Amino acid sequence: MELLVFAGLALVAAVAGLLVIVQRHAVYSALFLIITMGSLAGIYILLDAHFVWVIQVIVYAGAIMVLFLFVIMLLDIRSEPAPWAPPDRGRILIAVLLSVVLLAELGVAVARRFVLAPAGGPAVASSFGRTQTVGRLLFTDFLFPFEITSIILLVAMVGAMVLAKKRLH
Amino acid sequence: MSVPLSAYLILSAYLFAMGVVGVATRRNALIIFMSIELMLNAVNLSFLAFARFLNSMDGQIFVFFVMVVAAAEVAVGLAIIIAIYRNKETVDVAELNLLKW
User: Fold this and answer.
1) What does pLDDT average to over chain B?
2) Around Cβ A13, how many Cβ atoms within 10 Å?
3) Is B66 on the interface with A (CB under 8 A)?
4) Is residue B95 part of a domain?
5) A42 and A109 part of one domain
6) What is the pLDDT of residues A87-109, one digit of tens each?
7) A35 contacts on B by Cβ (under 8 Å)
């Protein structure tokens, strides 16, 4: 049953992930990216990552993709010619070949090291991945990095506003 | 039937490779950016799979930080793309040669 759910979600994520990069208009890419993130969120539940599932949906599929869609609509970008059009064809062929090599390497690495790992993994405590557990860890063991994230977000906020202002001086 | 670790890792590797293809082949800066997001998501999946199979919460905490950095990166990156579009009227990375000489 779990395997069936995973297979379905993984298939959706894989197909949508492929469609993200072959669209001619960025809006369709963004929509397929949302589908990919949504099905990944489903897979996160299978991995007992409840808190990460929530922020995947709210922050990633919600906030970040809305930001993308806003910018796409603001910029009035036309559909480009097909990405596999002649002037780019040689470059794209090389890029795809190299990516296939990368994928094969990763596959071999996984197959050699992890194919014998027991399916399902160890039994975990019922608190594994819950918001309470994550929160306790963030405010104890990871307090310093957690406080640093507030600075990162502040810098990003100020930087985004400065960069997107009317004129670049 | 439960899912083996290798299944998660292979899905993650596949999504990462798709992101690499997108970054390497596309010329639209926005789609390149989305491909980077795809790669970040793929890595997050690996983190969560290992966290589950090693019975350790550290992976999930790290995913939280990855998401924070991704959010910051998207905000700044999209602002840069807007600034570029204002100056050059294009988001085609092949036509951006301000720093070339």
Assistant:
1) 89
2) 28
3) no
4) no
5) yes
6) 677 888 888 899 999 999 988 88
7) none
* Shortest CA gap A31–chain B (Å): 11
Helices (H), chain A: 2-22, 26-46, 50-55, 65-75, 89-114, 131-138, 143-163
Q: Do A152 and B69 touch (CB under 8 A)?
A: yes
Q: What is the pLDDT of residues A72-89, one digit of tens each?
A: 988 877 767 666 666 677
Q: What is the largest CA-CA distance in chain B?
A: 60
Dihedral sign of CA atoms B43, A58, A135, A42 in order: negative
What CATH number is associated with residue B74?
1.10.287.3510
CB contact under 8 A, B70 and A149: no
Sign of the dihedral defined by the CA atoms of residues B32, B37, B40, B44, in that order: negative
Q: Does residue B26 sit at the A interface (CB-CB below 8 Å)?
A: yes
Number of domains in chain A: 2
pLDDT tens per residue across span B54-71: 888 899 999 999 999 999
Q: Is the pLDDT of residue A66 over 70?
A: yes
Q: Tell me whether B5 touches chain A (CB under 8 Å).
A: yes
In this complex, the residue of B38, B48, B81 whose CB is nearest that of residue A44 is: B48
- Domain count along chain B: 1
Residue B99 lies inside a defined structural domain of this protein: no
- Give the C-alpha separation, A109 to A112, whole Å: 5
Q: Does B56 touch chain A (CB under 8 A)?
A: no
pTM: 0.90
Radius of gyration of chain A (CA): 20
Å from A51 to nearest chain B CA? 9
CATH number at residue A107: 1.20.120.1200
Calpha distance B10→A3 (Å, rounded): 14
ipTM of the complex in this document: 0.91
